[in-house]
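Please produce the structure of this protein holding fe (ii) ion.
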Amino acid sequence: MNSYPDIKTAIYLWQESIHGNISWNTDVRSREYIFHTNGVGDAALKIAGYCGLDSSKAYVLGLLHDYGKIQNEQQSGIAHFIYGYNAMKARGFDAIARVCITHSFPFNDIKFDDYKQYSIQDLQTAQSIIKNIEYDDYDRLIQLCDMFFETNNIVSYQQRLSCIRQRYNLSPQQTTTLEKGVEQNKAYFDAKCGCDIYKIINVRE
Ligand SMILES: [Fe+2]
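Below is the modeled complex.
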């Protein structure tokens, strides 16, 4: 489960996902999608370079982790992590399919109460896919980088969590799970890089 596209193909797929967004969403939301996914890819590339991971792989995973947002999950009822997983599996890009799911769940034993914005069916499917996955550095890296690009700004994870909490009307318990995940991942990569990763990706607290 380790295949991913080359950068040229990844950019083609990324552009495809942007056009998908424009068809159902406002231009503003599309610009936010572009900023977010481009930012996650770029941050993953930079951090990977600092800690000896494959920068090209990290970039491609970051760019395409939200591919499932090519469709509107509110209208279709299909969570973006499921849509993205299936679309990337169908193309044979199993490594991308994997992060389409894992980026949404900092822990691979999903507590359904923490994700009430999604259907039970989608959560059961996600659980069945990730329960046997031991998260690796790429899973953790994309989970982490997903926490710094909000609307049109590079933000601290606390600011990003605050926006997510309001957007999905999350309970304190739901927010705590996400916070534990990002704290754990940030400490892991700070240690692995030998510095505060905020310096690498220019996050100002
Ligand atoms: Fe994301």
